[in-house]
What we know:
With 86 residues, this protein is mostly helical. It contains four helices and no strands. α1 (8-19) packs across α3 (35-45).
Amino acid sequence: MSQKRYNQEFKQTVIELYHSGTSVSELSSEYGVSEVTIYKWIKQYSPIEGTQELTVAEVEAIQKENLRLKQELEILKKAMTIFARK
């Protein structure tokens, strides 16, 4: 079974329709997307309460970037110790 790919614009449209009052079951039947997928999009791309309009996807991207930067810092620290010995 082939997995369908939906672009960000389509996902945002479905989420906006949900927030404007359209039920998930209506959206599912109208756009041919499973209800589980729509709920996942709502959770992933809706702003998190208590933040300045950050979504779960944005928080995950920030965490991934933070991890990458920490790894780069560790590499630089190791390189500094190697060059300091010479």
